[in-house]
Amino acid sequence: MIEHVGHEYLDAFFTCCESHLAQDGIFVLQAITMPDELYEEYIRSPGFIKEYIFPGGSLPSLSRITSVSASARLCIEHLENINGDQYYLTLRSWRDNLMANKDEILALGFDDKFIRVWEYYFIYCAAGFRTRTLGDYQVCGPIIFCVYVRICR
């Protein structure tokens, strides 16, 4: 979940991924994304998800992902928006399952605040996907090696 990495660590994360791939390896990433035009303000602002769901993390923008991929010598061969409508339905189902099992969750020692936080998260994100404010992308591609590296291996 790239959302846990955080804006300031994306370069290091992608560089680490590149360094652990075999020469013919393929890097596949699924990412919930923030729109490019909102990204700069988003990373500077506090928010519910940053505080309660992904502390220290952030939703990357698609431009940020492509930029750090290129910096880490990862070439994007395929990019697909995997349908926010389906993620909307998934989040609604997760919320319904949470509420259907509320008593059992409380019996495990979790409190009402825990239930409210996760119910809000599921509804909040479902609305983000329904309105296409949030994207859900799969990115994949092979590692890029310069000619010198190919010859020397």
Automatic annotation (TrEMBL):
Domain of life: Eukaryota
GO molecular function terms listed in the Swiss-Prot or TrEMBL record: methyltransferase activity
Coiled coil (UniProt feature): none
One Pfam entry name: CMAS
Protein name, per record: Cyclopropane-fatty-acyl-phospholipid synthase
